[in-house]
Amino acid sequence: MIEVWGRRDSSNVQAVMWCIAELNLPYKRYDVGHRFGGNDTPEFLAMNPNGRIPVFRDGDSEPLWESGAINRYLASAYGSDEFWPKDPRARAQVDKWAEWAKVTFTPAFSLPIFWQLVRTPPSKRDPVAIREAVARLDPILDIAEAQLSRHKFLAGEAFTLADVQFGHLLFRYFDIDIERKERPGLQRYYKTLQERPAFREHAMVDYGALRAFD
């Protein structure tokens, strides 16, 4: 049985849970982190010395942490050849977009924009810094727009791990109060993701409990 430690409204947990659901795998998830606590106990730190979520275990295997590593394991162990190709060259084409989402898009969005607008009290927000962060995000999303104007999904015509790594943050991107450029390809793609039950269940998660107030 797959086990996941991490609260439902953590974006990194959402990426893992969405991947698990797309692969139709049974699981147990435990609420840990933020208001639930539990990520500083000796038992948890024995699994992940960083004290961060998610933590993942498949049966009696060694615990895994880092959502990207967890999802690559899931894709390798349980994914179809379409979702995570066995051919190294084809797999690398998927992986480059998955990595781009993790190391380029996510850092440009999560901390400087989402965290500032949602997890920072209004009196401590910096509107200028937020606008500048949105401006820095624009050329990154233009790259996605160019790709999605030519292809149904991020890495081509098939739904792959790259879509999980990128798409799990799009509910937050389209839901928060920021100025967004018209990007028909990205908007069409987001609607396509919303048609997937696993996306609706695990990525379109209310984040109200994360909001900071004065």
Notes on the structure:
The protein has 214 residues and is of the alpha+beta class. It folds into two domains: 2-78, Glutaredoxin, CATH 3.40.30; 88-203, Up-down Bundle (Glutathione S-transferase Yfyf (Class Pi), Chain A, domain 2), CATH 1.20.1050. Helices cover 53% and strands 7% of the residues. The N and C termini lie far apart (42 Å). The model has no long low-confidence stretch (mean pLDDT 98).
- State the end-to-end CA separation: 42 Å
**Overall radius of gyration:** 17 Å
Largest sheet: 4 strands, mixed
CATH architecture of the largest domain: Up-down Bundle
The percent range for strand residues is 5-15%
Structural class: alpha+beta
CATH topology of the largest domain: Glutathione S-transferase Yfyf (Class Pi), Chain A, domain 2
Can you identify the CATH class of the largest domain? Mainly Alpha
Instruction: Please report the total strand number as a whole number.
Output: 4
Number of helices: 9
Count of domain modules: 2
Gross morphology: globular
Mean pLDDT: 98
Helix content: 40-55%
Sequence of secondary-structure elements: EHEHEEHHHHHHH
Q: Regions with pLDDT < 50 over 5+ consecutive residues?
A: none
Strand order, sheet with most strands: 2-1-3-4
Protein name: Glutathione S-transferase
Keywords: Transferase
Pfam families: GST_C, GST_N
Family: Belongs to the GST superfamily.
